[in-house]
Amino acid sequence: APSPPPSEFGERAALIPTQRMTGDDLAGRIYPEDVVCLSSDPSTPGMVCCVGEDTENSSPPTAHVYWLREHDNDRMEHIADLTILDRALLHGDTVIHKKRKGLVTATSMLVDIRYADGTVVTDVDTRSLKHLQPFRQGNWVVTEGWLGRVISCRDHVTVQFEEDGSQCLVTATSNGELVAAQNMYERSPFFPSMAVKAGASFSFASAQWIKGAYNNQK
């Protein structure tokens, strides 16, 4: 998507501040798509959707934030309560660095990755990564020139049983046919080698068996 014109949102600051800045010094300098957290809850990140305009003699400036959590994840927050974590820059954005202005002509991003065994790999170029599940509820998609939004997803999951190697195919929807057998983020997508078990209202007897057969000991 194209970046907002500078006349609408002003000039963006540097990509990552050298220090985390709170709302007191960021009032009027938080922008849409900034990654933030509450000063009182640094463990929960969120993304700014839009920022209220500053006006004299009005209430404190606010920002509309979508939080990465299961409940109460869409809120208006006082900018003074926010801490900026990261700022995404797009081609064509007007930026300023040490009082010098310029335009973004290219971007890259390096990330740290923690594997399931706890191993951490640093400075991985995101161009070498891809999503396990590229289509999620709420994603914007394009097909044959039409723009749309995903409203529901169904995962076709092949489950293999350790006891005898038998396999069945389960169509997993939001009804909880399959649940993770290990503690992990509740919205984690299904992925190869993930340990799962039948949900409370589902039985593997109703699955499509592609190798072996169902028995009630599974």
- In spatial order, strands of the major sheet run 4-3-2-1-5
How many strands appear in the DSSP assignment?
16
The end-to-end distance, rounded to whole angstroms, is: 48 Å
Strand content: 35-45%
> For the CA atoms, what is the radius of gyration?
23 Å
**How is the main sheet built?**
5 strands, antiparallel
Name the assembly state.
Answer: single chain
Keywords for this entry:
5-stranded antiparallel β-sheet; 3-stranded antiparallel β-sheet; disordered N terminus; UBE2O-like_tSH3-B; UBE2O-like tandem tSH3-B domain-containing protein; elongated; 2 domains; mainly beta; single chain; 16 strands; 218 residues
Topology:
Elements lengths: L5 H4 L13 H4 L7 E5 L2 E11 L10 E6 L6 E5 L3 E6 L6 E4 L2 E4 L6 E5 L5 E6 L14 E4 L2 E4 L5 E6 L6 E6 L5 E3 L15 E3 L9 E4 L7
Antiparallel strand pairs: 1-2, 1-5, 2-3, 3-4, 6-7, 8-9, 10-11, 12-13, 13-16, 14-15
Protein name: UBE2O-like tandem tSH3-B domain-containing protein
InterPro entries: UBE2O-like_tSH3-B
Written overview of the protein:
With 218 residues, the protein is mainly beta. The protein folds into 2 domains: 6-103, no CATH class; 132-218, no CATH class. It is 4% helix and 38% strand. The protein is built from 2 helices and 16 strands. The strands form 6 sheets. A 5-stranded antiparallel beta sheet has the order 4-3-2-1-5, with no helix packed on it. A 3-stranded antiparallel beta sheet has the order 12-13-16, with no helix packed on it. The protein is elongated, with a radius of gyration of 23 Å. Mean pLDDT is 78; it is low at 1-27.
